[in-house]
Amino acid sequence: MTGGGYGDAVAMSSLNIIGALTSAASEQAEAGYKASALDANAASAIRAGQEVERVGAFQTAKLSQDAAGLIGTQRVGYAAQGVDVGKGSAAIAQGQAKDQSYRDVITLQNNIWAQQLGFRAQAVELRRQGALERLAGRSRASRALALGGLRAAEAWMKYAPDKQKDYMTELLGPNATREEGQ
Predict the structure, then answer these.
(1) Is the CB of residue 147 less than 8 Å from the CB of residue 8?
(2) Which residues in the chain come in under a pLDDT of 50?
(3) pTM of the model
(4) Which of 21, 8, 9 lies closest to 148 in space, CA to CA?
């Protein structure tokens, strides 16, 4: 097919350009899909962190309620034995139960905070990956377009007749000068 004329050169160059456009669009679509999936996963991580907070608030309230119930039970038990609940070993036992429940609540809240932080960090990382995927898709699309343009130019040079001949002469006729075509 070498030297087949301008029609061949135009056809081959056009095919290369169409292929490059198709490839670029495909790269962009694939990157968009991957980025959307990463964004959806980030949103799931945020929801998981919110669920941890909701469940943790319930657990914290339940723990505080259980501690208050324990202290109440202790007070009733001591009072039934005729012990002054506000003094001596009865007061110490109630204070220890209260202190332990406070430590348990703080520990639970710290664990909840750590879990939420983990989910937030995961969401940030997933969003970052999504942004990088979009950028990489644009880069791959640009590369596909550039390569398609180079292939089109290569096809033009391969299939155009008389590469040394001035194409303006071919288009305007043998009597045309270069200045007329400009």
Answers:
(1) no
(2) 1-3, 164, 178, 180-182
(3) 0.64
(4) 21
